[in-house]
From TrEMBL:
Keywords: ATP-binding, Ligase, Nucleotide-binding, Protein biosynthesis, Transferase. GO terms for molecular function: ATP binding; glutaminyl-tRNA synthase (glutamine-hydrolyzing) activity; transferase activity. It comes from Halorientalis persicus. Residues 74-107 are annotated as: Disordered. Allows the formation of correctly charged Gln-tRNA(Gln) through the transamidation of misacylated Glu-tRNA(Gln) in organisms which lack glutaminyl-tRNA synthetase. The reaction takes place in the presence of glutamine and ATP through an activated gamma-phospho-Glu-tRNA(Gln). It catalyses: L-glutamyl-tRNA(Gln) + L-glutamine + ATP + H2O = L-glutaminyl-tRNA(Gln) + L-glutamate + ADP + phosphate + H(+). The keyword Transferase applies. This is Glutamyl-tRNA(Gln) amidotransferase subunit A. Residues 8-417 form the Amidase domain. InterPro entries: Amidase, Amidase_CS, Amidase_dom, AS_sf, GatA. Belongs to the amidase family. GatA subfamily. Heterotrimer of A, B and C subunits. One of its GO terms (biological process) is translation.
Length: 426
């Protein structure tokens, strides 16, 4: 376990039988595990032990899986490199000296290093797809509402989904089948099968892209690192050689997606993280009579820099007098992004772009520059704003051997097409 992929190394045995019997799954440490410490990568939850399992964990157990442990992550999911964790950074097993991506970096690293057969991550603005791309493995961000968030410690609940990470598209799809589907504990879940959608995800990994139409949003390719762009086009050529065709599409709204995403994510975070006050959650203060000071002290000590920055900005964006200027504008941009994607997908089966505009950064390189780090989410955040499904599959490597991922986006609850396209590549 040399890459610091795990925060807590504790095995949780599942049932004896089931589709995942004998197989192992690493679980991101913001997903609740009954009786096993769940920290969200934060000193605030250093000794927090949930009294119940998240729905996805229950489903893993009844599918027969063994959970290998709880994986490292950016604190509360806030980051793109797994360096904001209070438990130290994770190293990328596929690119030593480089970050594994984030925020589910521990999960992707565990799979890339062969320490687990599969992993679960969470994707609020790219946190499954980014580490999958950086570590040379496959990651799926499901349609909003396909996978239950019950027992997921919320960062920005209108954006996030739990998603699978695996060495191959077929295995990622197999894990998606186990965790997907309606849950009475999460009223935002839907039953796509009942609405006529194809939910045989693993069977869709048949590599048959003959006749498939791929839309390529120019805005998500332009401006990316040169070698990333080259690797991306080689992979598109590969799909074309297998019978797919492509055309370029415009998504003018995505220019505003990163801004809108961060306003919405930080606003939701400022509200979701209010519960970490030393009374409801977090270490109890030695109460000496001044409630405000005690409360502030717990938060001052328990949260890292990035989390504090986001709580402050989110609180500001929601405050009286500024709400219309920031939050409402971001919601308008979100609606526009959704509409752009719907239009583009009306003339394509899937949309393709590089998952990340840059190859994995060197460790320590981006920590002092939050804005550059936020901009690295340019291609992934629009998909969360639009509530759509997306997959990241390995597309190749740069000249220096750094992994490059291709992102394929499908229509809502149309996971099968992007799985099919991805399986033709990997
Ligand atoms: N990098 C993005 C952020 O920091 C995405 C995080 C995520 O998907 N959890 O918000």
């Amino acid at each position: 376990m040399s890459h610091n992929a795990y925060i807590t190394d504790e095995r949780i045995e599942g049932d004896d039988e089931g589709p995942l019997a004998g197989r192992t799954v690493a679980v991101k440490d913001n997903i609740s595990t009954d009786g096993v410490r769940t920290t969200c990568g934060s000193a605030m939850l250093d000794d927090y032990v949930p009294p119940y399992d998240a729905t996805v964990v229950q489903r893993l157990k009844s599918a027969g899986a063994t959970i290998t442990g709880k994986t490292n992550m950016d604190e509360f999911g806030m980051g793109t490199t797994t360096e904001t964790s209070a438990f130290g950074p994770t190293e990328n097993p596929a690119a030593p000296g480089h970050v594994p991506g984030g925020s589910s970096g521990g999960s992707a690293a565990a799979v890339a290093a062969g320490e687990a057969d599969f992993a679960l991550g969470t994707d609020t603005g790219g946190s499954v797809r980014c580490p999958a791309a950086f570590c040379g493995v496959v990651g799926i961000k499901p349609t909003y509402g396909l996978v239950s968030r019950y027992g997921l410690i919320a960062y920005a609940n209108s954006l996030e989904q739990i998603g699978p990470i695996a060495p191959s598209v077929e295995e990622a799809a197999e894990l998606l089948e186990v965790i997907a589907g309606p849950d009475e504990h999460d009223a935002t879940t839907r039953d796509p099968a009942a609405e006529g959608a194809d939910t045989d995800y693993a069977a869709a990994a048949d590599g048959d892209v003959a006749g498939m139409e791929i839309g390529i949003p120019t805005e998500l390719v332009e401006g990316a690192d040169e070698q990333v762009v080259e690797t991306f086009w080689d992979a598109i050529d590969d799909l074309e050689a297998q019978g797919a065709s492509y055309h370029e599409v415009d998504l003018p709204s995505v220019e505003h997606a990163v801004e809108a995403y961060y306003v919405i994510a930080m606003s939701e975070a400022s509200s979701n993280l209010a519960r970490f006050d030393g009374v409801r959650y977090g270490p109890s203060p030695d109460y000496e009579g001044n409630w405000n000071e005690e409360f502030a002290g717990v938060r001052e000590e328990g949260f890292g820099e990035e989390v504090k920055r986001r709580i402050l900005l989110g609180t500001y964006a929601l405050s009286a007098g500024y709400h219309d200027k920031y939050y409402k504008k971001a919601q308008d941009a979100r609606a526009w992004v959704k509409q752009d994607f719907d239009e583009a997908l009306s003339e394509a089966d899937v949309l393709a772009s590089p998952t990340m505009p840059v190859p994995p950064m060197e460790m320590g390189e981006s920590l002092d520059d939050p804005l550059t780090m936020y901009l690295a989410d340019a291609n992934t955040t629009p998909v969360n704003l639009a509530n759509l499904p997306a997959i990241s599959v390995p597309a190749g490597e740069t000249d220096d051997g750094l992994p490059v991922g291709m992102q394929l986006v499908g229509p809502a609850f149309g996971e099968t097409e992007m799985i099919r396209a991805g399986s033709a590549l990997a």
